[in-house]
Fold:
Amino acid sequence: MTDVRSALKQGLAQLREAQVPSYTLAAELLLLHVLGRDRTWIYAHPEQEISAADAARYFELIVRRASGEPTQHLTGKQEFWGLEFEVTPDVLIPRPETEHVIEVALDRLAVGELRAGRKQTLTGEGLQIADIGTGSGCIAIALAKELPHAVIFATDISCAALAVARRNATRHSVSDRVHFLECSLIDKVPTVGARYIVPLRPEGSNSGLHGSRITEYESRFFDLIASNPPYVGRREAATLMREVRDHEPEIALYGGEEGYELYAGLITQSAAHLKPGGILVLELGHNSLPAVQPLLDAINWTNVGVTNDLAGMPRVLTAERM
Ligand SMILES: C[S@@+](CC[C@H](N)C(=O)[O-])C[C@H]1O[C@@H](n2cnc3c(N)ncnc32)[C@H](O)[C@@H]1O
Structure:
């Protein structure tokens, strides 16, 4: 028999010995997972005995963590934007820096509302949003929660990732508004029924509408496109932590030999799908900015902005479609 304090002490000693980063947190999270308790409980009950079965399960997870499996693969979950997401080895584990994508997207949408002279309460009414390379669905679902009337298309090239994302959408009760599509970037996003209708007024008149016309841009349908694409260079693979290199999906990590290869297609396809004034929000790799920013040519894009993450790295690139 062992108790909570001893199990924790032994677990973290094993993880420290194996040079696991944040070993105390990892040992705690695994114990919480096995016991089905929260953090307050384990610190309030250090002398509580643990059953032999729970202790065996805990130390089995400690061994797996010590050998490099990410904690999130062992617990099956990760928090993002205050929401709990299911994660499996088929999806990238949502990262805290990706929350900047959500912040920037919401800020830009709010500025758009302000410019249009509308109320500052963003409900997402009438907004069509795309999340390209959705993985666990964390970006699409966080935006769906923040914008309860928005309609969201979330794409991924990985069918296995989309299965996880769909379960996460159900878990967070947004599956009626988040539509998942298996495709490369945004190339299969439907344009049928997505016509961009321009209201017509007679010149000089501010009286009622006098008909409408469908523009030639049938596919320029989205108000916002967000993406955290794969952006690690294959040449950097040896520098990655073993937890990442050996356990997260290659398709989610590598953007090509250099890392930034997917951005050109992403930006071109986004230009074809965003409405005039529509917003593009892209997460960047630690060294992607010099290669990616020049792709936002002045013919198609304006109001280009860069947001740094908490470590001071340029992390999010934003632009507005002309
Ligand atoms: C860096 S992960 C991001 C996942 C999730 N959006 C997040 O922020 O945690 C990139 C995702 O893009 C997907 N992906 C890779 N190449 C793609 C492509 N050509 N078209 C669509 N999705 C792609 C991967 O399967 C993976 O789920």
Summary: The two ends are 67 Å apart (CA to CA).
